[in-house]
Amino acid sequence: MRELIEMRFYTDPRGEAYEQVIDLAINHSECFVLKVQKDRFAAMVRSDGYNRILEALEPFLVNKIKLHGNGMGAIEHARDAYQSSAFYTAGTYHMYRCCEESGALLKRAAYRLADWIYPKLPEDLCFVKKDGGDYLDSIVHEQMYGLEVTEAEALELLDRITGLFLELESHRDLERLLDDAIKHKTDKLYVSGHRLTELPERIRELSELRDLEIFEQDVYRLPEGLFELSKLESLKIMTANLESIPASIAKLKNLRELSIYCGSSDRPDPGWRVKPKEEISLNRIPPEIGELEMLERLTIVYSAIHELPPEMEKLKRLRSINIGCCSMKRKPAFLKRMKQLEHVHVSEGLY
Q1: What residues contact residue 206 under an 8 Å CB cut-off, 6+ apart?
Q2: Range in 76-85, 119-128, 147-156, 188-197 the model is least confident about
Q3: Strand duo 31-36 + 123-128: pairing
Q4: 187-346, superfamily in CATH?
Q5: Which SUPFAM superfamilies does the record match to this protein (predicted)?
């Protein structure tokens, strides 16, 4: 008996990989489901592409399901009837027949699964098998995508479709994870649970990366290769103690969000204790941070930082700054001159 497992995606496939995934899903499913916004306001703001795809798919429509928000009964009934997570909230759902022609429309309408979101397109493209159950599911606003296949099938698909990056048990091995991440040119990666003491320099090979999250309590120093990721937009680091933010941070010209949380543990080792914040090595923000012209959010929590560099005033796009549980006694005066700031939290405590 084939043991099917829902394999989650690190990120959704794009371009040619998206088209191959649509072909795969069409061949393994009976129908696909889209959530359609039906109220008068939605009709006014949804895009021309939204309307065109609904009109083009009309010949393949096999069912409409309207689920009301005054109770969970109807939603649970629909989920049970089709054994599908497509019906996860109230709304109107259209079900379409899977065939080569309808698949061709899906491929022309979007570049990636993340495109299936209101008001650009009907929401959350999901594929349902003949006897029920999802073959492919997506909740785009949560950036959640999954494919129900066996482990062996997942391995074969990863090898065959460049850009289809599924989470595997074998990715517990960091080298295998990086090999696949580089091969599939992922734009999003989460690294945790590898007991790292340092990040490998080959991280620089992840040239398409836009979103990187690292949760490794023993990582103390950031490698220079990290700052060669020129497309990076979001960088989040959680560790017990960080030596510094290198001046090379200035190279990340597209960075929009930087978050650092010291005093963090990724595993419940017996006897582990958080260092007093005064003993945390991270005690300054380099003035080079002022060169991050695209930066919108800056969060550094639990550190020995005692002042902010005046160069931060150059960050004209910065909307939110949270330097919590630090060693600063007062907010610097230049923050008041940064009129674009919408949220400012700088204090010795967390709140």
Answers
A1: 178, 181, 182, 186, 189, 212, 229
A2: 76-85
A3: antiparallel
A4: Ribonuclease Inhibitor (3.80.10.10)
A5: L domain-like
Q: What is the DSSP string of 265-299?
A: -SS--TT--PPPGGG-S-----GGGGG-TT--EEE
CA-to-CA distance for 101 and 347, rounded, in angstroms? 59
Cβ-proximal residues to 126 (8 Å cutoff; 6+ apart), any chain: 32, 33, 84, 85, 86, 134, 136, 137, 138
For residue 18, the surrounding DSSP H or E stretch is helix 16-28
Q: What DSSP string describes 124-140?
A: EEEEE-TTSSEEEEEEG
pLDDT tens, residue by residue, 147-189: 999 989 999 999 999 999 999 999 999 999 999 999 999 999 9
- Give per-residue pLDDT as tens, 40-66: 666 667 778 899 999 999 999 999 998
Angle between helices 100-109 and 48-57 (to 10 degrees): 180
**Mean of the per-residue pLDDT values of the chain:** 92
Structure tokens that stand for 129 in this block: 């098998």
Confidence of residue 69 (pLDDT cuts 50, 70, 90): low
CB neighbour burial string for 24-54, b if at least 16 within 10 angstroms, e if fewer: bbbebbbbbbbbbbeeeeeeeebeeebeebb
Are the beta carbons of 346 and 303 closer than 8 angstroms? no
Residue spans of beta strands (DSSP E) within the chain: 5-8, 31-36, 61-67, 91-97, 123-128, 134-139, 144-149, 188-192, 211-215, 234-238, 257-261, 297-301, 320-324, 343-346
The CB-side HSE value for 275 (13 A sphere, CA atoms) comes to 20
Domain ranges of the chain: 5-160, 187-346
* Residue 164: closest CA among 155, 151, 172: 155
pLDDT band at residue 76 under the 50/70/90 scheme: confident
The rounded distance, in Å, linking the Cα atoms of 315 and 177 is 35
What six digits make up the tokens of 321? 């700054």
Distance in angstroms (rounded) separating the CA atoms of residues 340 and 346 = 16
Between CA 243 and CA 219 the distance in angstroms is 9
71 — pLDDT class (breaks 50, 70, 90):
low
